[in-house]
Amino acid sequence: MRLAVPSDLSALLSTGFLRSVGSLGIKVATAGLTYLTYVVLSRTMTESEYGHFAFGLSLATVLAILAGVGQSTAVLRLWPQLRTGGDEDSAGAVVAAGSAITIGASLVLAALLSLFAVIYMPFLAEGDTANHFFGAAFLILPLALAEYNGSVLRAQNSLWTALLPRDIGWRLALPASVIGLFSLGIVLSGPDALTLSAALLMGTLALQMYVAQRRRYAIMPRRRPVPAHWQKWGSLSTWLLLGALIETFTLNADVILVGLMLDLESSGLYFNAFRTAGLMTLFTFAIELVIAPMVAEHFHAGDMRKAQAITALCAWAGFLFSLVIFSLFLVSGDFILSLFGPSYSQGVLVLLLLAFGLLFDAITGPSKIVMMMTGHERAYVALFGGIMGVGFLVQIIVIPIWGVVGAAAVNMGSRILAQMAIAVYCRLRIGLDTSLLGIFAIQSAKDAPAT
């Protein structure tokens, strides 16, 4: 059955799809370079040192989202919302205050993590090190600021300036530097790799901010608007932070938990399997980068048909891509993991379990983005966070018994339930069907008063 696309939606979907393809191109290159980085590091390090790197990177990623205090999501929602209402000055203040908050919070968390590492050092076993905690501390600020700058520039429809510095520049420089140092006989430890990552990312961020200023995009931090910004948007930012933290936590906490409850070698294996499974979400993530401000704009303008059309496009494009990658894992998962080293191929069952859970991300579509962009962030925290939180507690019980396979199985089950819950919520409470069935809801969607 062929579905006719109304003329008023054709241009919208074409624009969204073409920009998403551009975003996908960057993300495919990013995935390749990221994979190359992990392969290079795992091949040039011992399994223990690679485990230190994986643990530190996962910890820094979670803390960087905490340091962002929800500002990267808030700016995607508030910039189009305020500009649609004609309030250009407030939109600019949101950008400046969000950047200042991100930088300040990052420095505080980095200092606290470093203090924790110093206190923890006397309790280390002989021959062990806390340097990966210091490496993670160095990485918090560049990761948090990279996430925020990307959101600011995407909100201003500057996709290439938003993504190229971090997703291409940094991810190209890191493996090249590691290979160059290795050719000189310098083998990096896990903490060394974390520190090098931080230095290179800060360099690419400086270049990004310089180019953005030259192109007259709002991006620079200012302290003055921070108090007024927090007074007006602090509650929203807190809930957006919880939403972003929950998603990041579910993608990284398993690695940390495995490292704490088993060993760092198992943490490295789980890290590689999870990052490999994450390749399935490439197109979904790429298109969500584009549609987030579009969903906010059309929903708050009351254009429900356009909002529904955008979410349907995202769901189907992401699902088809994910299905192809999942099929590839079924056939060649062990070979793909062996690229990191022969011992990592034993994680193929972990890979398939995690990948099956992520397949439901694509089936249920951009539910999280829709909830965040339409003012339902509290419900997202309660539903998704509650289910995944229970899953995390179950993992604590399961990991000592069934190891990494048990951790992956619980993650898969929790994610399926959580994604289904928020998709049903979007349909019943927001009026947007984010799942694959949303394509049939476009014609019946009715526009609403602007909010």
TrEMBL record:
It is a multi-pass membrane protein. InterPro entries: Polysacc_synth (IPR002797), PolySynth_Transporter (IPR052556). It holds the Pfam family Polysacc_synt. It is found in: Membrane. Its main location: membrane. Keywords: Membrane, Transmembrane, Transmembrane helix. The chain crosses the membrane at residues 21-41, 53-79, 91-123, 129-148, 168-188, 194-212, 233-253, 273-295, 307-331, 343-360, 380-402. This is Lipopolysaccharide biosynthesis protein. It comes from Devosia rhizoryzae.
